[in-house]
Amino acid sequence: DTGVSPGDVGIWIDPIDSTNEFIGGREDVAAIEGIAPGGLRSALVLVGAFDRHSGVPVLGVINEPFFQRDPQTHRYTQR
Hints:
Number of domains: 1
CATH architecture: 2-Layer Sandwich
CATH superfamily: Fructose-1,6-Bisphosphatase, subunit A, domain 1
Distance between the termini: 24 Å
Number of helices: 1
């Protein structure tokens, strides 16, 4: 329960970073100690909800849309 009525909730979707990486579609950037420094695997998306009257955030989810690519289907899984 966010404490905010559904009619007072605003939603935003924000590509947190790596927009240029997404546009470039680079898949050849190796992870360093499990962290992707560039390329598609570094792209993150934030989906958030906020109280439209106060602007206070009430919920947020971060997604990695290009977490892992299946070598056979070439499709990505996300997390």
